[in-house]
Structure formats: C-alpha cells, structure tokens
C-alpha cells in the first residue's frame, strides 16, 4: 500500500468514492464484518460497506505496520451506562494507540485517524420532506437557525447540522439517541447556546450532494484531508503515489 502515512499528532481525514462493480477483497474483513456485509439487500449498499471497512483497515494497518486483515477491533465502555458498546477502538491498544472513526453514506466514505478521540460523519443531503420530519431531533437553537433559512437552503443546512451532531456523538461514544436535541452544534453567533466543552467540531469539504464533519477532543490539530482513488480498495491495494492527492487543509470550526 504505497503513499500512506498517518502521522502521530495530526488529524488525518481520508475521503473515498467506492469503485462500481469491481470485486472487493472480502478476506481482509473479519467474520463479523462479512456477516454484516451479507445482510445488506442492495448490492450498492453492500459494496459501500465493504469498501469503507477495507479502507479503514488498510489505513490503520499502515499506521500500525500490520496487515489490514490482522487489525482487531473492540468497543470502549459507553459513557452513559458503562456497557461495552461505546465507540470502536483498537483491541489491546495502549495509551498511544490511534483513535479512529468511520462513516459512509450513499457513495461517500470518510475515515478519521487522530491521537485523541475522534468522530466523523458524512450525510447525504435529504429531501425537504425528510427535513420536516426530522427537524425536531435538532437542538431548539439549531431549529431556529434552520427556520431562518430560505426553504431551498434547508436540506443542505440540515445535513451539515446533522453531520456535526453525529460526528460529536460518535467521538464521545454516546451515539445518536434521544439526547440529540440536547447538544447544540449550530452556527453560533450572538445569543447562541454554548457548544460542548472540550471538543473541536469542524465542517469537512466534500462533493455535491453530501455534508461531512469531524469532531475531535481538544484543540484543533494539524489537519490533512486526502482523497483516495476508488481503485485503492481493489484486490492488490497498490497505486502510484501520484494518484493519491493530498491537500493540507485548514478546516475552520463550524
């Protein structure tokens, strides 16, 4: 796997559009991942899931110096109830182990690797009727901000808000639940509610039709956003370095 470096002390974000119709190396997934992949009814959803998890394994394998198929995962304790269903972590990882997060949505994959707890999310921009149905799950301050926007702007604005919220709740390990309306991650401004203390939440540039965000515990780190070519998740996983475009990007706090 050429051209892959995940540096300690830096927030690395990787974007991927999975290849269409190409066979993917299922042998790099563990048994639980293969079962989950087989449960998808739509071939496109199955391919997206497989490509996303191959990408995560290869990126972590490059960071750890181990084959992708040997990367093992566990779950941290839930911060709400203490049960073993918190955010994913590396099995047996010590204090210096990298933190990571994965998200995928209808043709888009986002992976984050950082030295501190991190969450990422990518969302497809919803239809207007979906926004109307789900807006009550937003914080009251976010609902007010959404209502002030012109109707044509609301689906994209909702997707940005929801991506920030999911990224933050994945980073903390709480996950999305009935408490989504308790967390304010709107655009701020005079009189706006406070944001969660101790976390940086940033919008991530992505292609049209999607919104993406990352949340990392602590101050904003040096951040690099890269786009992997679709062919990278194919069987051999080897591509010329020049085809992996890397841009050092200063992401602004959302």
From TrEMBL:
Q: Which UniProt keywords apply?
A: Transferase
Instruction: Write down the SUPFAM superfamilies for this protein, in alphabetical order.
Output: 4'-phosphopantetheinyl transferase
Highest taxon, organism lineage? Bacteria
KW Repressor (keyword) present? no
User: Could you state one GO biological process linked to this protein?
Assistant: lysine biosynthetic process via aminoadipic acid
Q: Name one GO cellular component term.
A: cytosol
Question: Matching InterPro entries, A to Z?
Answer: 4-PPantetheinyl_Trfase_dom (IPR008278), 4-PPantetheinyl_Trfase_dom_sf (IPR037143), P-Pant_transferase_sf (IPR050559)
* Ranges of residues in domain 4'-phosphopantetheinyl transferase: 117-180
Question: Which GO terms label this protein's molecular function in UniProt?
Answer: holo-[acyl-carrier-protein] synthase activity; magnesium ion binding
Q: What family is this?
A: Belongs to the P-Pant transferase superfamily. Gsp/Sfp/HetI/AcpT family.
Q: What is the protein name stated in its UniProt record?
A: Putative phosphopantetheine transferase
Q: Which gene encodes it?
A: sprT
């Amino acid at each position: 796997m050429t051209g892959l470096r995940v540096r300690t002390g830096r927030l690395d974000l990787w974007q991927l559009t999975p290849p269409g119709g190409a066979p993917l190396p299922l042998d790099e997934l563990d048994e639980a991942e293969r079962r989950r992949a087989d449960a998808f009814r739509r071939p496109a959803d199955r391919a997206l899931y497989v490509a996303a998890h191959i990408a995560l394994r290869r990126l972590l394998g490059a960071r750890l110096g181990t084959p992708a198929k040997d990367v093992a995962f566990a779950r941290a304790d839930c911060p709400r109830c203490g049960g073993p269903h918190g955010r994913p972590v590396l099995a047996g990882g010590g204090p210096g182990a990298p933190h990571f997060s994965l998200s995928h949505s209808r043709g888009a994959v986002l992976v984050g690797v950082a030295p501190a707890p991190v969450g990422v999310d990518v969302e497809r921009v919803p239809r207007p009727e979906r926004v109307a149905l789900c807006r009550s799950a937003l914080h009251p301050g976010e609902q007010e901000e959404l209502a002030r926007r012109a109707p044509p702007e609301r689906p994209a604005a909702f997707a940005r808000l929801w991506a920030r919220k999911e990224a933050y709740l994945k980073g903390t390990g709480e996950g999305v639940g009935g408490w989504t309306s308790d967390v304010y991650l709107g655009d701020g401004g005079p009189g706006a509610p406070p944001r969660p203390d101790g976390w940086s939440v940033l919008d991530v540039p992505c292609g049209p039709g999607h919104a993406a965000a990352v949340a990392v515990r602590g101050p904003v780190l040096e951040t690099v956003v890269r786009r992997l070519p679709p062919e990278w998740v194919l069987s051999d996983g080897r591509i010329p370095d020049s085809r992996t475009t890397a841009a050092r990007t200063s992401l602004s706090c959302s």
